[in-house]
Amino acid sequence: MAVLVTGGAGYIGSHAVAALLEKGEQVVVVDNLAQGHRKAVLGGKLYVGDIRDAEFLSNVFAENEIDGVIHFAASSLVGESMQDPAKYYRNNVYGTLCLLEQMHKSDVKRIVFSSTAAAYGEPERTPIDEFDRTLPTNTYGETKLSMERMIRWFDVAHGIKYVSLRYFNAAGAHESGRIGEDHSPETHLVPLVLQAALGQRSHISVFGDDYPTVDGTCVRDYVHVSDLADAHLLALERLCNGGESGIFNLGSGQGFTVKQVIDVARQVTGREIQAKYEPRRAGDPAALVASPARAIRELGWTPRRDRLEDIIASAWQWHVNHPEGYGQD
Ligand code: UFG
Prior knowledge:
Strand 1, helix 1 and strand 2 form a beta-alpha-beta unit. The protein is globular. Helices cover 39% and strands 18% of the residues. The mean pLDDT is 97. The two termini are 29 Å apart. The chain is of the alpha/beta class and 329 residues long. The strands form 4 sheets. The protein has a 7-stranded parallel sheet with strand order 3-2-1-4-5-6-11, sandwiched between helices. A 3-stranded mixed sheet has the order 12-9-14. The site of uridine-5'-diphosphate-4-deoxy-4-fluoro-alpha-D-galactose has 22 residues, from helix 5, helix 6 and strand 8. Uridine-5'-diphosphate-4-deoxy-4-fluoro-alpha-D-galactose binds next to helix 5, helix 6 and strand 8.
């Protein structure tokens, strides 16, 4: 029996594939390589294609005995989602519909879904728990929330059991040093700060220093990508053991400001990192910190690599050894 990982060549997907392989699972990856990298897939069988291509997808299900699906394939840039919402509805919402229809046809009853803290929008309180208000402030978060809801209705109608995992800020790289973060364009804080440390950028722009936080810069909850990967395996295990469907936050429960992240990166790298203060970025909430209590209690998850120093050090190792990311692949 195999686990199908859609978007398994992407940043978080490739770490989940690595964790599945380490556990000895059979893995089938589907990725259209729009954002993903062939080299990021460390093993298993890779099908290059789009989940919206019904013939392609039905072939993947016909050729493999798929027992469960981990669904990462999606567009995930907040800024782009506000420029081109249609792309997000097509790739994310319609893509998920195609996948669920195929799962139903093939009688596959388990899905672990890659969701996001962006489903909450501007939080009413900190830390955020799974019962807090969901009111996304961008199209990306809105489509992820729609996908969560669609999956729930397939559970109600067809008994497809799900676990939706709402990630906070993924960072870091695999301990083997073989896979890490390589987005194009890069918009995330940690890789951009490390590119500045490497001299690939002249400075890091800090978006806003007048937020109601300890030092005026935004607070986020950084969680190691391998801890996220572990949670997917635990979620799948829960479903295989007949566990209930559910939604879980994945974060460390600790918040760090943008300034603190830059300071830790200076310590870890021993390099100069110039910071320039710029106006706020539209749509950024002041603070996003998870309560991961439910995942810890019900999935048995532990964010083991939870020191920001270690998360940034693992990302640094990747950036130093792969200054051009995966390069041409
Ligand atoms: N930031 C800067 N300068 C930069 C980049 C980011 O100051 O050059 C700041 C942002 O303003 C934010 C923090 O660093 O305060 C983190 O920004 P990221 O872009 O790294 O991450 P976000 O918190 O915006 O986004 C993350 C996920 C998204 C998810 C979102 C939920 O990456 O997928 O959380 O709000 F949608």
